[in-house]
Amino acid sequence: MHLNESPFEPSKLVSTYISKYVSVLNLYHVEELEREFLKKLSDYVKLPEEYVGVFPSSSEVLMSIIRFCRSRGLRLSSVWPSFHGFIEFAQVENVDVDLINLIPGSFELDLVKIAREGSSNKALYLANPNNPTSNMLFQEEETLDFLVNRFGLVVVDEAYFEFSKFTVADKVTNYDNLVVVRTFSKAFSLAGARVGYAIANPELLRELKRRTALFSVAITSLAAALGALEDIKYMEEIVSRVIELREELRESLVELGLNALDSRTNFLFVKLPTTGRSLAKYLVEKGIKVRSYDDELIRNYIRVSISSRENNLRFLRALYEYFKM
Q1: CA–CA separation, 155 vs 171, rounded Å?
Q2: DSSP string covering 38-71, please?
Q3: Does domain 233-324 fall into CATH 3.90.1150.10?
Q4: Is the whole-model pTM more than 0.70?
Q5: How do the domains of the chain map onto residue ranges?
Q6: What CATH number does the domain located at 12-231 have?
Q7: Among residues 216, 279, 292, 303, which one has the fewest Cβ atoms lying within 10 Å of its Cβ?
Q8: Block mean pLDDT (10 aa), the chain, length 325
């Protein structure tokens, strides 16, 4: 319960489409598949095809963005706490990230601090909804305007868009310094396929694509993602079921006297009367993994992914035993 994977298997159409293209795995790419997938993805995003680019995972989109920023002399900024992966990817590329703390407790944007840090030679990364805090960082068009007018590049990671139902993807036609990043790993139950995509103006998108390997998205992964897009109804049902399980778990945590932030994702961010590390260590002994933190700002929190009802109940029983000791 520590990786924010979907607890449900992919649509049956995923295996159907994979089977359809298995016989052409001797090839690097299949033009018909790529064309069909891009058209379907464009329809889903509701933007012309030239505004959408597929990558081998949203992680690789972020890596390409980091490489682009380094080549353009854009210094990286992000808020904290936020997606730890972005900082780790930057470290791989030997790039520093300036961190701007969110408001403690509510974990909202501190726009005064952000305005102070804003510059045309900086890039700002935001996960919205935010990971690990699970909340929306912004939902107002005015906030986006504020950000894109103060930074040379703004990256909005919408990995949990299907859960939040909020997007700024349509704004890429207005701003040439905005990139939206999404994934098939969460709502589409395709974490193992490693398919992500970027939404940006065509010129910026070409620059990002130049910074990843040619033919890097596997044929079977594209086929899997196409199958998932052909069954949007299934995805929406899965999202509804995860939200239902999330709220069940949240209510149970409240009954235990714990506080979980209002979530717009497939996980909960839970405040504890103890350190997250001590609880996480105990849970591992029970065969349960959650994410905990050393950072002072969030050392008394854990992030727990929504799993099956059976696993959620195992987690709750373990919590009850831990706090009863």
Answers
A1: 12
A2: HHHHHHHHTS-GGGEEEESSHHHHHHHHHHHHHH
A3: yes
A4: yes
A5: 12-231, 233-324
A6: 3.40.640.10
A7: 216
A8: 97 98 96 97 98 97 97 97 96 96 95 94 98 97 96 98 98 97 98 98 97 93 98 98 98 94 97 96 97 95 98 96 85
